Protein 1
Amino acid sequence: MINLYSGTGRLPPPSVPLGTYDHLKTKALAPPKVGEDEFDNHVSDAAQYGRAEFWDDRYSTEVEPFEWYYEYSYFSPIIRDLVPLDAKVFIAGCGTSLFPQDMVNDGYQNITAFDISRVAIATQKLRCQDRYPQITWLQGNIVDTDLPEGSFDVIIDKALLDALMCASMGEVSAKLYRIEADRLLKSDGLFIVITFGNPEIRLPLLEQNDLDVEYFTPWKTTVQAVMKPKQYPNEVLDPDDPDSLYFIYCLRKIPELVKAKLVKERKLIIKKNKKVARGTKRSSNL
Ligand SMILES: C[S@@+](CC[C@H](N)C(=O)[O-])C[C@H]1O[C@@H](n2cnc3c(N)ncnc32)[C@H](O)[C@@H]1O
């Protein structure tokens, strides 16, 4: 594991591998263990990754569990390190991945698995039957859930943010998602994002560090990277090449920052109310 960054600023750390990452912005998600041809087949689908109908269609024809990037066991040392077994965990965009079930098999007791695709959620429920009472399956849109605020200790995203960013209006969805994640997390909650996106392209989506601007993110970010597993024995992977890495963003809410955000928001509301009151007074004097 490579530790890349620890801070609350937007700039990528000096230790981020050198090179330009622009090519990653347009790259489609790579499904696991496939050759380059198969990877290319997914490129044309990428623009659809924000649409529920696309995912419903896809999961209707692909009935077997499908794991983007790699399965839970590959990331579990990091997850186990960060997430206590009794945490209330929300898995955003679970798809038909076995990540929720694998977490339960690893000892986690309270998992909510969420996806926009009705088909994915129905498939998961059918597959689990009564075997995983620790998992609640929910269908919905991550940019606007009906769940109460402060519901979870941890949110885990594997490849959902990447999917949103492939779709049109990706940055808008990512911003709404970030705001919703903050709302859903407790005041010391943790948002974990597993992605192919390096800090230069992902940190600006995940952080808003200016308290004077709307939707300040009250978290401190650390970034780790792990080497992708080899897809074939002779494959050469380079730790300085972002194409060889998965990045794991850990966005930890800090209660003091949450408090500062609340104070700021209250001040803004008072300011707005005063302005409205002045306007009303002025018009009644006319
Ligand atoms: C790339 S797949 C990742 C699936 C799974 N996390 C994995 O690692 O295998 C992205 C998933 O996000 C879901 N998704 C896309 N947009 C969403 C949204 N707005 N709200 C909730 N889920 C969404 C899709 O249905 C799909 O299952």
Note: The chain has two domains: 3-253, 257-286.
Protein 2
Amino acid sequence: MRPPQPNRPGVGGVSEPYDAIVVGSGITGGWAAKELCEKGLRTLVLERGRHLEHGKDYVTEWWQPWQFAHRGRGEQELYERDYPIQSKNYAFGEATRHFFVSDREHPYVTPDDKPFRWIRGYQLGGRSLIWGRACWRWSDLDFEANRRDGHGVDWPIRYRDLAPWYGYVERFIGVSGSAAVPARRAISARAAAASGDTSRASPPRSPPRARPGG
Ligand SMILES: Cc1cc2nc3c(=O)[nH]c(=O)nc-3n(C[C@H](O)[C@H](O)[C@H](O)COP(=O)(O)OP(=O)(O)OC[C@H]3O[C@@H](n4cnc5c(N)ncnc54)[C@H](O)[C@@H]3O)c2cc1C
């Protein structure tokens, strides 16, 4: 509980019991908060970034290239100074810069031999404001990739553990279209089948779904 603030009425002095506190409001935290609320838990979401209003704050959504000061290409000097990492992402540009962090304000380091481009968006919704909306399922090939390559620790789960949950989320968010095997997986699956390795077969997808209401 925060102490009462004499010059800020309504701030502090009130004990707010929460059953759950979710840190971050991206796809992960947002989904967790939704589930917790639907189960009746009093849920607090803490978000470090600015508040965004769906629709209203997509300020460049319908802009055409000629409406931007630099026709969408942006200020290269500014990018080099403030966004040397973010600006390497394909989705970064004059229309989207406000959804990416400033690398100058949020620096990080990695070992020299292990560079890592950390693409970040600090705002309500996190990187859901910039993602590409492709909804892949991981196959066992993905779950086993780091073990096969000798990196980190093995995932404690496999595709069959997640399959029903993929379906659960896909129904809610309205994933639509063909359940066809994506090209990369098709190539991997064909290579695996040729080598007799059945563990790398592509996961079965749910049947094709129509867009809700469509
Ligand atoms: C350009 C781009 C395209 C992509 N396209 C796809 C795609 O097509 N398909 C796909 O599956 N994935 C895609 N991804 C990946 C996908 O967007 C991310 O994996 C996903 O959005 C991550 O969600 P998250 O909630 O885990 O993290 P984030 O979205 O990063 O959310 C983290 C949230 O936590 C907040 N936060 C961080 N630290 C704190 C703190 N200390 N206190 C409070 N709040 C904090 C941040 O501000 C942020 O809002 C793409 C990513 C990018 C960058």
Note: The longest strand covers residues 20-23.
